[in-house]
């Protein structure tokens, strides 16, 4: 069995640096946070979960078919939390520009997985980059205040040029991600 998801990786060096700085600011609240490693920051288009290894090849083929589109720019803006800033469990940065294109890719990724015969739990899609998970209740008021104050924070933009099928191996130190397949997006207008 392999644990899979389809994502857009955040690799632009300036954007990664700004997100890393923001994580340090969040940690300064002394809330019990488990930050996402810089190399693991991404936007999940579709979380698939555990599937038999035999399902990987059909999924790669369907992704290549379904995810064809032009590249586009995303702009990251605003700090938020799931389920809400007052009860944060996951702290994230939102997507301002490029959200509709990410929604389109989410639908296409869902179609690809279904065509590959993969069953998964359908969840509502809210484009975001997870920064940290909350692991307790200490100093949550400081964290909540920061999330609200930084609700309009501008972080920058990057070009989305490919979508990746990722394997996630869970370890005590955190997940290890491996790219199994890349679908390049075309240059030019949609």
How would you briefly describe this protein structure?
By secondary structure, this protein is of the alpha+beta class. It contains four helices and nine strands. A five-stranded antiparallel sheet has the order 2-6-5-4-7. A four-stranded antiparallel sheet has the order 3-1-8-9.
Describe the model.
Helices cover 28% and strands 39% of the residues. A hairpin with a 6-residue loop joins β8 (162-169) and β9 (176-184). The protein is of the alpha+beta class and 190 residues long. The chain has helices spanning 13-27, 56-66, 99-115, 140-149, and strands spanning 2-9, 33-35, 42-51, 72-84, 87-95, 128-134, 154-160, 162-169, 176-184. It is globular and about 45 Å long. 31% of the residues are buried. α2 packs across α3 (99-115). The strands form 2 sheets. Strands 2-6-5-4-7 form a 5-stranded antiparallel sheet. A 4-stranded antiparallel sheet has the order 3-1-8-9. The longest helix has 17 residues, at 99-115. The protein has a single domain (2-184), classed as Cyclic Phosphodiesterase, Chain: A, CATH 3.90.1140. It contains 4 helices and 9 strands, in the order βαββαββαβαβββ.
Record keyword descriptors for this entry.
four-stranded antiparallel sheet; alpha+beta; Cyclic Phosphodiesterase, Chain: A
SSE order and pairing:
Layout: E1 2-9, H1 13-27, E2 33-35, E3 42-51, H2 56-66, E4 72-84, E5 87-95, H3 99-115, E6 128-134, H4 140-149, E7 154-160, E8 162-169, E9 176-184
Antiparallel strand pairs: 1-3, 1-8, 2-6, 4-5, 4-7, 5-6, 8-9
């Amino acid at each position: 069995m392999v644990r899979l998801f389809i994502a857009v990786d955040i690799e632009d060096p300036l954007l990664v640096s700004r997100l890393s700085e923001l994580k340090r600011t969040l940690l300064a609240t002394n809330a019990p946070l488990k930050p996402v490693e810089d190399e693991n920051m991404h936007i999940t288009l579709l979380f698939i979960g555990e599937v038999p290894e035999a399902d990987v090849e059909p999924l790669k083929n369907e992704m290549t078919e379904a995810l064809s589109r032009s590249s586009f720019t995303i702009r990251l803006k605003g700090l938020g939390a799931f389920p809400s800033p007052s009860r944060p469990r996951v702290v994230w940065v939102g997507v301002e520009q490029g959200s509709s294109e990410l929604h389109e890719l989410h639908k296409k990724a869902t179609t690809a997985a279904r065509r590959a015969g993969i069953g998964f739990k359908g969840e509502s899609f809210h484009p975001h980059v997870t920064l940290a998970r909350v692991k307790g209740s200490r100093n949550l008021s400081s964290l909540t205040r920061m999330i609200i104050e930084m609700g309009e924070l501008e972080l920058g933009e990057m070009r989305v040029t490919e979508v990746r099928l990722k394997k996630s191996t869970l370890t005590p130190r955190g997940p290890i991600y491996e790219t199994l397949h890349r679908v390049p997006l075309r240059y030019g207008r949609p």
